[in-house]
Write a structure and sequence with these properties.
Elements lengths: L6 H9 L7 H5 L3 H7 L16 H22 L14 H36 L3 H13 L13 H9 L7 H9 L2 H6 L11 H8 L9 H10 L9 H10 L3 E3 L4 H7 L3 E2 L6 E3 L9 E3 L2 E3 L4 H12 L2 H15 L6 H13 L4 H10 L2 H4 L8 H11 L8 H10 L22 H18 L5 H9 L5 H8 L4 H9 L2 H4 L2
Antiparallel strand pairs: 1-3, 2-3, 4-5
Helix pairs in contact: 1-3, 4-5, 5-19, 8-14, 11-12, 15-16, 16-17, 21-24, 23-24
Length: 489
C-alpha cells in the first residue's frame, strides 16, 4: 500500500459513492478533473421517471379528506350561526382529520416505496456519483421525515422536484424551492401558521376560535438551513420571520375546507405551493435589522434572498460541506476557502463545489469519515454490481442498519460525524448484513480481484492477506466489506 490513497481512490470514495470495478482506472491520475467534469450539464434525473407530482398527490389526499368531510357534514349539519356557510364545525374538522389520517398511509406508502427505491437505484447506477452525493447532502441539509404521515408521500418529491434540479444552480434558488415545497411546509406545520393580525385571525377571533402563529419553519430556516444556530439572531427575529411567511401553504383544499381560507394565489413555479393572503400577517416587518415592506408572498421571498447571501450562511454551508467531504472536524483553511467561493460567486453551487474539490486538505488527509449506513450500502452494491431489489426489499437493509430512507430523527437531518455511526452495535449489524449477503453470493464474486479494484491504493496489506487466506469466496467478501478501509471514505 502507498503512503496515502491515490487521487483516484479519494475521488471515488470520498467525493463519490464508492468505486465500481474499473472506475479507478477510468478516473486516472487526477481525480479533480473527473469530479469537475460531473459539474457540467443538467443534473441527472431519477431512475424510472413515472412519478406523481406533489400537486397530484395533494389533490388525491384532498379528495380523500373531502369525501370524509362530506360524509361527516351530511350526518352533522352546521348549526352555529356565526360560521360562514360551508365551514365545518370544530367537531367535524377533528373527526374528518382523524378518518382521513387513517386512510392516508394507504395512499402514500406505495409512493414512498417507489420514490425511495428509485433514489437507491439512481445512486447505484450513477455515472456521476459526485452529483448524487451532493444531492443527498442537500436532502439531508433540508431534512424532512416520513415519520410525519403527511410527509410520507412527499419526501421523495422534495428531493426530486426542489433539490435535484437545482444542485447545479444557486443556493438562493435551491433555498426558495425547498421552503415553498409542500413536504417542508407540512413537515414544519407552516400551513397551520396564521398571522395574528390577518383577516382570517380577526374573523376567527370574533367567533371565539383560538388560532395562532407557528414558528417551526422560521426557526429551522434560520438555525439549520441558512445562518446557523450561533449567528446572533434573536427570538424576536424568529417570531417576526414566522409572521413574514404566514400564508405560505399547500394546495389541496377542497369544497368547504377551501372556502374557509378565502382566496388563494397559485405559483406555477412552485409545485403544490399556494399563498393564502387571508392568513398572511399584514404590514412591514423588521428582521435582522432590515425593514421589509408588506408585499404578500414577495415579502418572504425577499427575506430568503438576503439570508441566502449572508456571510453567516456562507460560513454555515462551508462548514457543513467540508465536514461532510473532508473531516468530522473541518479544517479551518478548507472552510475559509469554500466560504470565500460561496460569497464571491453569490452562492453559485458549481463554483462552491469546485472550491471544495480544490481544497488541499481533501487530497492529503487519510480517510477519516466513517460511512453512514446509506454510504456503506451504496458502496457495497456498487462494488459488486448488485441490482437493487424490488419494492420493500430494497428499503429493508437500511432499516436494519439504522438509516431508514427519508426518516431522520429531527429537522437537523442525519448526523454527519463518525462517532454517531461507529458504535459496536452498528458495526455488528453491518457484519451480519455483509455475511448474509456474501453467503448468498457465494463464489459469484472474486474478492481477491475486487479488493484492489474498488479500494485501490487504500487497500492495506493486512486486509489483502486476510482475503487471500479466506476459507471461501463468501468469507473473502465478508472480510473485504468489513475491512476498516472499506468502512471509511
Amino acid at each position: 500500500m502507498t503512503d496515502k490513497p491515490s487521487a483516484a481512490t479519494i475521488a471515488a470514495n470520498r467525493f463519490g459513492l464508492g468505486a465500481r470495478p474499473g472506475d479507478l482506472r477510468s478516473i486516472g491520475d487526477d481525480g479533480r478533473d473527473w469530479l469537475k467534469a460531473q459539474l457540467r450539464g443538467a443534473p441527472p434525473a431519477v431512475a424510472g421517471g413515472n412519478f406523481k407530482s406533489s400537486s397530484e398527490l395533494l389533490a388525491e389526499a384532498a379528495e380523500l379528506r373531502g369525501e370524509r368531510l362530506a360524509q361527516r357534514a351530511r350526518s352533522t349539519p352546521v348549526s352555529a350561526p356565526t360560521l360562514p356557510p360551508g365551514t365545518p364545525t370544530a367537531d367535524q374538522q377533528q373527526a374528518f382529520n382523524l378518518e382521513a389520517a387513517m386512510k392516508l398511509p394507504q395512499l402514500y406508502r406505495p409512493v414512498y416505496v417507489e420514490e425511495a427505491r428509485a433514489r437507491l437505484v439512481t445512486a447505484v447506477q450513477s455515472e456521476r456519483p459526485f452529483i448524487e452525493r451532493v444531492t443527498q447532502f442537500w436532502s439531508n441539509h433540508f431534512a424532512v421525515s416520513v415519520d410525519k404521515i403527511q410527509v410520507l408521500g412527499l419526501a421523495g418529491s422534495l428531493e426530486r422536484e426542489a433539490i435535484r434540479p437545482r444542485v447545479l444552480g444557486s443556493f438562493g434558488e435551491l433555498l426558495l424551492a425547498v421552503e415553498r415545497h409542500p413536504a417542508m411546509l407540512l413537515y414544519l406545520d407552516n400551513q397551520q401558521s396564521i398571522g395574528p393580525g390577518s383577516p382570517f385571525a380577526k374573523r376567527a377571533g370574533a367567533r371565539g376560535r383560538q388560532i395562532g402563529l407557528n414558528e417551526n419553519l422560521a426557526r429551522e430556516i434560520l438555525e439549520l438551513h441558512t445562518l446557523g444556530v450561533d449567528a446572533g439572531y434573536t427570538q424576536s427575529d424568529v417570531t417576526t420571520f414566522a409572521k413574514v411567511i404566514t400564508g405560505w401553504s399547500v394546495d389541496g383544499g377542497v369544497g368547504r375546507q377551501r372556502a374557509a381560507y378565502g382566496p388563494e394565489v397559485n405559483n406555477p413555479r412552485a409545485e403544490g405551493f399556494i399563498f393564502r393572503p387571508m392568513l398572511h400577517e399584514p404590514g412591514a416587518q423588521k428582521l435582522l435589522g432590515k425593514r421589509y415592506a408588506e408585499d404578500g408572498e414577495a415579502q418572504g421571498i425577499a427575506v430568503l434572498h438576503d439570508l441566502a447571501r449572508s456571510p453567516a450562511t456562507a460560513h454555515h454551508i462551508a462548514t457543513k460541506l467540508t465536514r461532510h467531504f473532508i473531516a468530522d472536524d473541518p479544517p479551518p483553511a478548507a472552510v475559509e476557502h469554500v466560504r470565500k467561493a460561496f460569497l464571491a460567486s453569490d452562492g453559485d453551487l458549481p463554483h462552491v463545489y469546485g472550491a471544495l474539490i480544490d481544497t488541499h486538505e481533501a487530497w492529503t488527509s487519510e480517510p477519516g469519515k466513517f460511512k453512514t449506513p446509506q454510504d456503506f450500502l451504496l458502496s457495497t452494491w456498487r462494488a459488486i454490481a448488485l441490482p437493487v431489489p424490488d419494492g420493500n426489499r430494497a428499503l429493508a437493509p437500511l432499516e436494519v442498519l439504522g438509516q431508514r430512507q427519508f426518516a431522520p430523527g429531527s429537522p437537523a437531518g442525519w448526523p454527519d460525524r463518525s462517532s454517531d455511526w461507529d458504535g459496536s452495535s452498528s458495526i455488528l449489524k453491518r457484519i451480519e448484513f455483509v455475511d448474509a449477503l456474501a453467503r448468498r453470493l457465494g463464489d459469484t464474486r472474486n474478492a481477491r480481484e475486487l479488493a484492489p479494484d474498488v479500494l485501490g491504493s487504500a487497500l492495506r496489506d493486512a486486509t489483502r492477506l486476510a482475503i487471500e487466506r479466506a476459507a471461501s469466496g463468501a468469507q473473502a467478501l465478508t472480510l473485504l466489506f468489513t475491512a476498516p478501509e472499506f468502512m471509511r471514505r
